[in-house]
């Protein structure tokens, strides 16, 4: 019951649980990034729409330009984060596939 194989199964189960937690975290981060994109795109669109209407505040064009550049920078940052997260997910998937091949089934 106890021994090397039990220890390996225990460690494999702990590694799998840690990997699953990381996957949930990365998926949550992806959902947050998507929501941020939607909110920022809507904000810039509304500012742009307000700029095309009459009675434009004199600071609106400057604000719109700043927001567009900030949106572009944030989009670039989120894309870099997404790329890093995809690499981490691929590494976890590879680790899961190696673990399932090397650990004998319980029972």
From TrEMBL:
Instruction: Give the protein name, as stated in the record.
Output: Uncharacterized protein
């Amino acid at each position: 019951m106890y021994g090397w194989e039990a220890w390996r199964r225990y460690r494999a189960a702990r590694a799998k649980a840690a990997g699953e937690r990381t996957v949930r975290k990365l998926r949550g981060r992806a959902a947050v990034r998507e929501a941020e994109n939607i909110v920022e795109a809507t904000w810039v669109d509304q500012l742009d729409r307000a700029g095309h209407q009459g009675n434009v505040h004199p600071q609106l064009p400057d604000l719109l330009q700043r927001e567009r550049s900030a949106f572009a920078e944030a989009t670039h940052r989120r894309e870099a984060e997404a790329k890093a997260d995809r690499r981490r997910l691929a590494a976890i998937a590879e680790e899961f596939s190696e673990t399932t091949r090397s650990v004998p089934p319980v029972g």
